[in-house]
Write a structure and sequence with these properties.
Strand order of the largest sheet: 3-4-2-5
Structural class: alpha+beta
CATH class of the largest domain: Mainly Alpha
Shape: elongated
Number of domains: 2
CATH superfamily of the largest domain: Multidrug efflux transporter AcrB transmembrane domain
Largest sheet: 4 strands, antiparallel
CATH architecture of the largest domain: Up-down Bundle
Order of helices and strands: HEHEHEEHEHHEHHH
CATH topology of the largest domain: Multidrug efflux transporter AcrB transmembrane fold
Number of strands: 6
Distance between the termini: 33 Å
Length: about 325
Amino acid sequence: MRLLKLVPDDTNIDFVRLRKMAFALTLALSIAAIALVFARGLNFGVDFAGGLMIEEKFASPPSVDAVRSAVDRLGVGEASLQQLGGNNSVTIRLPTQKSADEGATNAVVKKVETALAQQFPGATFSRYSTVSGKVSGELVQHGLLAVFLAILGIGLFAIFRFEWQFGVSTIVAIIHDLLMTLGFFALTHLEFDLNIVAAVLTIIGYSINDKIVIDDRIRENMRRYRKMDMRQIINLSVNETLPRTVMTSATILLALVALLLLGGHVLRGFTAAMILGIFVGTYSSIYVSSSLLITLGLRAEPNRAKPGTLDNAERVGPREKR
């Protein structure tokens, strides 16, 4: 039985040739992502913004203005609404209530549920969640700290495992992946909550896994082909690991697409972030992290001649037995 091969074994793509174009594209996308975050902001969920979030499901897509008017008449604070899924479900976000007592919160939820059921026959209550302002602030700090420590730890590992150029290129690529994710959520205004922080950390983990594999092959080829130009070494290494990269990405995407289609709107943000991260992480591993090594001045290890050998001798691999 023949093995499935998405990429031929003799692939020889000149990835380094496009590195300047890739750097320009990466810089442009990163600036655009930062601009989007500052201009549109992120749609923080209750986890980070605090307050009360109620999810209501309607028999048919309702008018958002009509739902907002119905909630505003209750005097429970200014409501922020967002339609989900096929527009039949609506999340109603209310400010933090004066009383953090669970009974008071349940009373507000019941009040909203009753009012919507009367005005929109067939409307049913799905769920609600509430987070105090103090807790939401702590979650923001802990989320940022987790991402920062993950990036720092990965960069230090790459520096100690390889060389400083590998650590710098890895950190740059991960920051690029992170900015692309933030820009995507600023553009789409999907809810940004703790699930998305988990998705970001997962994206970083997947991305670094791909980068470490490529970096390890580059390091191995640097020792094997000491006189080969660095451009050729990087192209050779990326092409050698390309079948694994494509197969891994394709199989993960199959699971994520199924989760996106069948997982419901609760997991839609998480799944969308993961799918974006697969494409962005693969791109940054090939075109950003690897090619940046040339710009940072990485060179193949010089051949150290041993006593009794010629100065220009080159060992390219284990000696074959005759």
